[in-house]
Predict the structure.
Amino acid sequence: IYRSAGWPSQDALEIDLLAAGLLQRVQAASGHETLRVTDEGLRWMATVLARNRAALSAHEALVERVAREMTRAGRIAWRGLSLRAQIPTEDAAQPLRWCIARPDVFSIRQTSVEAYVEPIVHEVKVRRADLLGDLRQPGKRAAYQHLGECWYVLGQDARGRVIAEPDEIPPECGVLVASGERLQVARSAQRRARTG
């Protein structure tokens, strides 16, 4: 609505936004109706935008920390990669399908021997809602596990508390907890034998 000419979709979301005073209906001389964002709506959007920027900044800072720790441990680390992975399906005729996985940090050992590469995926979470949404996506986790060991890195909330308990993370995944300037292992990832 903010970016468009204000043409209404006439959906339930617009009813909520109108009732909250974040939108207003405007009737043109021709009789057609459009929606405009109110001053209160603009203030709300600015608040949400600032909150999202802060969360992104916290996320990116923790991603950088994890990548730096992997490099210090003698690994080669990447951020923002898009990798092909296979995940299981319910279809017996086609038990696996390809998808694109985008881990926050992907690292491998510095070696030229394929059997010793030991790929690791780190998924960084700084907001509890984001973590819970991610945990409801078993396909995403399966894709990460196809790539290598899967670790969740848990940040802290505004009060300095870890956003989740390690036992909330599926047992096959490792858990790192950001505590001050340290990343502490709360639980190691289950290692699986890798075959080509």
About this structure: The beta strands are 23-27, 33-37, 75-79, 83-88, 96-101, 105-109, 120-125, 149-154, 174-179, 182-187. The first helix runs from residue 12 to 19. DSSP finds four helices and ten strands in the chain.
